[in-house]
Amino acid sequence: MSLNNKRPIDVVIMAAGKGTRMKSRLPKVLQRLAGVPLVQHVLNTAAQLNARSAVVITGHGADQVEPLALAPGQALAVQCMRQEPQLGTGHAVQQAVPALADDGVVVLSGDVPLTQAETLQALIAQCGGDKLALLTIDFADPSGYGRIVRKGEAVQAIVEHKDASDVQRQIQEVYSGIMAVPARLLKAWLARLDNQNAQGEYYLTDVVKFAVADGVPVVAHKITDALQVAGINSPVQLAELERAHQLRQADRLMEQGVRLKDPARFDLRGQLDCAQDVEIDVNCIFEGKVSLGEGVKIGANCVIANCRIEAGAVIHPFTHIDGEKLGVSVGEGALIGPFARLRPGAQLGAEVHIGNFVEVKNSTLAKGAKANHLAYLGDATVGERVNYGAGSITANYDGANKHRTVIEADVHIGSNCVLVAPVTIGAGGTVGGGSTITKSTEPGSLSVARGKQVSIANWKRPEKKPKA
Ligand code: UD1
Ligand code: CA
Predict the structure, then answer these.
(1) Closest ligand to 88 CA?
(2) 152: Cβ–Cβ under 8 A, 6 or more apart, which residues?
(3) Helix H segments across 172-309?
(4) Distance 110 CA to ligand 1 centre (A)
(5) Model confidence pTM above 0.90
(6) What is the pLDDT of residues 302-321, one digit of tens each?
(7) Which CATH number fits domain 9-229: 3.40.50.10540, 3.90.550.10, 1.25.10.10, 3.40.190.150?
């Protein structure tokens, strides 16, 4: 979804803070929620808003944050401005001034990942190009937050918790950290900030009193959904927000008809598209882009990433699938697992069976092919109805290069075979168990390549010597 703004909007994302309470070497805004760095959530929201540009204020960990923010593939223009040292939120936004035009600005924080674009759109509408609009919320426990001080209905000021009087500390309406404001006015107010307060910081929130002094209307857009303004300061808060977000994603899928055995034990770190009558058992993780066809069943404890699973396929418990960039596809009615591993480029046709401890990489298996036990298929082309025996492998790597193995239709590969690529097993052929096949075989042939069995009659085993 994207939204159309009448006037151009730029966003400023404050991301210079240290995040001491995370106790991590990784900058706070690079910690991940649903698999995505916090600041990337905020950039994605800005893109949904059709913002013209984002100015990211960096400081702590800037050399890690900036490469992500400036990575190719961002859906909007991004600039980074350094804030050294960090003298407060007002000082942070001051750094953005040279990068800002004179249109509307939305100020966001890099550690508040779940604000919805519609909410910001409503805030921008309240700003209307000539007012200061604050996103606010009532908290039962408002301690630590900036309080919204009103005279009647009109907003007079934001007073930070540490600067607030006892009476002001009773106020439950708090500033979320998000505002929409005309840049022209913001720039003038930022130039007037000082640090005469309890924390000796330049507070962005002081722009409210300048607006009031200048006769510019200050409006509060109050929301009730705390998740949208929740900031992350600690591993506990990160985990709480992750779970709340996952529950929302689970609810959305169930509303579409997906049957989750337990929404509290479901994790989506990417995009999951489900047709009708999909069932997902507990403790499954979906990453990247995954699509599940009609009636697909996913057993417990599966990790499934970058994969397309067609109708009626069943993925048994403890299966790991990751298509990475090449993708994985699983055909209609296929049976996979338990304990199977499908790697990039595994393309399985209809009714393929992949059993326990079988690994498939960069291989095509045609309709009805089966590899049911303890096997490896890498860089292989496998025909229809092939039966690939327990413990068999394709030796696809000669230490320098990868080579292909072709197994034509209706071949039967016995147990514990090594197919040394490049090699072709002709259609309908059979390979005897324990064979190491280094030369291609003719269609319809039986190939056996192993030491001949020797049996010695009445064999006496060595006897133990008596102890001296
Ligand atoms: C701020 C607000 C407070 C509001 C609260 C909501 C101010 C003065 N106060 O307080 O009214 O209720 O958010 O969460 O704005 N940052 C920088 N550079 C700095 C300081 C901060 O980039 O010099 C970044 C932080 O990394 C963070 C964001 O700005 O992403 C907010 O800073 P934080 O210290 O969390 O502000 P609060 O004191 O919580
Ligand atoms: Ca904060």
Answers:
(1) 1
(2) none
(3) 183-190, 207-213, 235-255
(4) 10
(5) yes
(6) 999 999 999 999 999 999 99
(7) 3.90.550.10
